[in-house]
């Protein structure tokens, strides 16, 4: 079709991973000149079909390891597909491995000329662009220093600034702004807005759903090496957040060993978390076993962030819930329902069973469970409740 600039047809990619087999010390010496290497196949992509239109700002999203960056490298020609093909019309400039070709022993100035030459510019053309490049990178005072003395953020800024000078029909962008500061990211997004208005085709891989919503005309969602959906930005962003939240909730593990103490007259046997009500609430479910009679049990919980800063908590005394006595051998299921006001990140649950007017501890369990939250809206604060706004 005339308006199709990139066509991805039935693309699959597999990598061969080598494994050395040495079963004994004897085999090491008796097989010095024999290959003991075996290979296993790792699927990176499976049967991907996408058509991207000329002038489209096209997003690709997915969890880590889903295959989105591999797909971008296949489009760029860095990898060859195992099966299938990619057809493109126009010059492709990849913003993927920024700074490849930079020499750490050369100065920033020398690296600009080196990078420009690799992009196909003459010395005179680079002379004309040089001021614009360093002003964009905001590195005027550092251009005569060796690149090895730059911070990683400074190197990314210089590499991105050089790459913006390339003349392209298609730009491939893969999370290149992760190291830049907020002000530099704003500059880069302004650059994206400009090239979008110029009709340049952009393929954009990111985890930032705000950027996806702001820039992308259509978005592909890849999961477990396969294409799940291609749709408008809003539809795919919602699917991504739901998919990612469910995955992180199921796979979250505490980053440190939990601590637990108490006389064990009653214990928590199992702890579970689940997003409910379309992600608006979090259900905490605990199974409790009584090992001795407890006449006045109190159950409590606390949720903390990754640096163990308490965020919220409660117990059955505070909630004025009357709990029946627990009898030896009895099991009970306890549930707390919390509003999902948490910001992006990992959170830790601390649990307690107390009795005798909360003076005795049966089971106090730090880091009993970890869960993760992925939000469409991110704020720099501890919690992220729904907030209304109006103007008249």
Radius of gyration: 28 Å
Helical/strand content category: alpha+beta
Residue stretches low in confidence (pLDDT < 50, at least 5 long) are: none
CATH architecture of the largest domain: 3-Layer(aba) Sandwich
Lateral arrangement of strands in the main beta sheet: 5-6-7-3-8-9
What is the name of the CATH class of the largest domain?
Alpha Beta
Between the first and last Cα atoms, what is the distance in angstroms? 48 Å
Helices and strands, in order, run as EHEEHEEHHHEHEHEEHEEEEEEEE
CATH topology of the largest domain: Rossmann fold
Give the helix tally. Answer: 8
Task: Indicate the topology.
Blueprint: E1 4-20, H1 25-30, E2 37-53, E3 57-61, H2 68-76, E4 83-88, E5 92-95, H3 108-118, H4 123-137, H5 152-163, E6 170-174, H6 182-197, E7 201-205, H7 209-215, E8 218-223, E9 226-231, H8 233-251, E10 260-261, E11 266-276, E12 281-290, E13 298-304, E14 310-315, E15 331-339, E16 345-355, E17 360-373
Parallel strand pairs: 3-7, 3-8, 5-6, 6-7
Antiparallel strand pairs: 1-2, 1-4, 8-9, 10-17, 11-12, 12-15, 13-14, 13-16, 16-17
Helix pairs in contact: 3-4, 3-5, 4-5, 7-8
């Amino acid at each position: 079709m005339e308006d199709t600039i990139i066509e991805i047809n039935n693309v699959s990619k597999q990598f061969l991973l080598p494994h050395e087999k040495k079963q004994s010390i004897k085999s090491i010496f008796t097989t010095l000149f024999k290959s003991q290497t075996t290979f296993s196949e790792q699927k990176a992509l499976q049967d991907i079909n996408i058509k991207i239109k000329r002038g489209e700002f096209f997003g690709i999203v997915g969890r880590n390891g889903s295959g989105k960056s591999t797909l971008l490298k296949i489009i760029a020609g860095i990898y060859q597909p195992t099966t299938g093909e990619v057809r493109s019309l126009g010059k492709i400039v990849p913003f993927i491995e920024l700074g490849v070709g930079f020499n750490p022993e050369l100065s920033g100035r020398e690296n600009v000329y080196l990078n420009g030459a690799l992009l196909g510019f003459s010395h005179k053309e680079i002379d004309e662009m040089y001021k614009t490049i360093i002003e964009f990178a905001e590195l005027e005072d550092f251009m005569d220093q060796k690149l090895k003395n730059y911070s990683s953020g400074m190197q990314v800024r210089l590499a991105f600034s050089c790459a913006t000078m390339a003349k392209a029909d298609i730009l491939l962008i893969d999370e290149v702004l992760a190291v830049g500061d907020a002000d530099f990211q704003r500059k880069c997004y302004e650059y994206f807005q400009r090239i979008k208005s110029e009709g340049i085709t952009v393929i954009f891989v990111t985890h930032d759903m705000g950027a996806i919503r702001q820039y992308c005309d259509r978005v592909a969602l890849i999961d477990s090496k396969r294409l799940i959906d291609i749709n408008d930005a809003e539809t795919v962003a919602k699917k991504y957040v739901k998919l990612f939240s469910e995955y992180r909730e199921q796979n979250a593990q505490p980053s440190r060993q939990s601590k637990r103490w108490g006389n064990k007259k009653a214990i928590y046997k199992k702890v579970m978390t689940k997003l409910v009500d379309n992600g608006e609430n979090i259900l905490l479910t605990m199974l409790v076993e009584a090992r001795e009679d407890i006449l006045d049990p109190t159950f409590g919980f606390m949720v903390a962030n990754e640096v163990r800063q308490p965020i919220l908590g409660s117990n059955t005394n505070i909630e004025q819930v009357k709990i029946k006595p627990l009898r030896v051998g009895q099991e009970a299921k306890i549930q707390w329902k919390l509003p999902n006001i948490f910001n992006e990140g990992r959170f830790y649950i601390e649990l307690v069973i107390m009795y005798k007017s909360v003076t005795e501890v049966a089971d106090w369990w730090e880091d009993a469970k970890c869960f993760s939250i992925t939000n469409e809206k991110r704020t720099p604060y501890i919690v992220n409740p729904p907030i209304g706004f109006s103007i008249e």
